[in-house]
Design a protein that fits this description.
316 residues; alpha/beta; Rossmann fold; 2 domains; 6-stranded mixed sheet; 4-stranded antiparallel sheet; 13 helices; 10 strands; 22% strand; globular
Length: 316
């Protein structure tokens, strides 16, 4: 038993084994006091347990000092030397299974920030980590593999779907890229996705132009779920829809989150929608997050003047 303690406390152990070892090592702490470990040149077991506790509580998404600067240009496309800070030194985390609502006026940098998390837009500075892996440091091949766990739902349900493809081809495209599956299995997955988002299986043979805006957004959501993603950026996913249709989509997102254990960054300019869906809310203005906190705290007792202005606008 002593040999096991020494190896576990001093040698490299991966996170997957850590789940089982946290409990085991905790039981052995009393058998190997810290002072005795020190005399043998071995780290105390309690430090190992502490390390695993930190790893198991790790945020799914971490953004540190994210910045995006665009060079301004004139009418002829020439740079003028001035710069626009679309996102300015933003840091936050998103925990597994939660929804972080990102709210702010149009043009404040919300969409740019969301796309930087997926590296659809490259940051000018800063770091993004997904489940402990630094996304901003990955090469093209590793980034493609990492994107199996990340996806985006775009604002425009009319422009985000390829009009030349059938619905079946659209929702199975991620599977065709990342998995080596035959057509029967792809078709089965596509049928399951249609049912998950509330559409008939018969929709698979049709083209995007044959659907309403709300139905197209459901197709976009099905595509985002194709690889059982863990993290989804919903970029103004309901702003182009009628109020009643948008409410249906928001309820669908909430239902799917429970069913598939999803984590969301939900971007919107509508405080009521963000308040309904989100666990926490981040308020963004002119490229900066001016306030972040639990939904109740942000909506009931906001600290920043701009957050107060947003809430007063809703009341009016």
């Amino acid at each position: 038993m002593q040999n096991f303690i020494t190896r576990a406390a001093g040698g490299p152990v991966d996170i997957a084994r850590g789940y089982a070892e946290v409990a085991s090592l905790a039981n052995f702490i009393r058998l190997d006091p810290a002072s005795e470990c020190t005399r043998r040149g071995v780290r105390p077991v309690s430090r190992r347990v502490s390390r695993y506790a930190t790893l198991l509580n790790m945020a799914l998404v971490e953004a540190e000092h994210l910045t995006k600067i665009y060079d301004s240009g004139d009418a002829f496309g020439r740079t003028t030397g001035s710069a626009l800070r679309a996102v300015d030194d933003v840091s936050f985390t998103i925990e597994k299974g939660e929804t972080l609502g990102l709210v702010g006026e149009s043009g404040c940098g919300k969409s740019t920030l969301g796309r930087m998390l997926l590296r659809l837009i490259e940051p000018s500075a800063g770091v993004v980590r997904f489940d402990g892996t630094e996304i901003t440091a990955l090469g093209a091949r590793a980034l493609r593999e990492a994107r199996r766990d990340m996806q985006i739902i775009f604002q425009d349900p009319f422009g985000s779907l390829d009009p030349r493809l059938t619905v079946e081809e659209i929702v199975t495209e991620p599977l065709a890229i990342h998995e080596d599956l035959g057509k029967p299995i792809l078709r089965q997955h596509a049928a399951e996705l249609m049912r998950a988002v509330g559409l008939e299986v018969s929709a698979l043979a049709r083209y995007p132009h044959e659907f309403s805006g709300g139905q197209r957004q459901r197709i976009g959501i099905a595509r985002a779920l194709a690889l059982r993603r863990r993290f989804i950026v919903a970029d103004e996913a309901v702003s182009a829809l009628d109020v009643s249709v948008g409410a249906q989509i928001v309820n669908l997102l909430k239902q799917l989150q429970k069913e598939f254990a999803l984590t969301y960054l939900f971007i919107s300019h509508s405080m009521p929608v963000v308040r309904y869906l989100s666990t926490r809310i981040a308020v963004m203005r002119q490229g900066k997050i001016v306030e972040i906190g639990d939904t109740e705290q942000i909506t009931v007792a906001p600290q920043h003047e701009y957050t107060q202005e947003l809430l007063r606008a809703v009341e009016e």
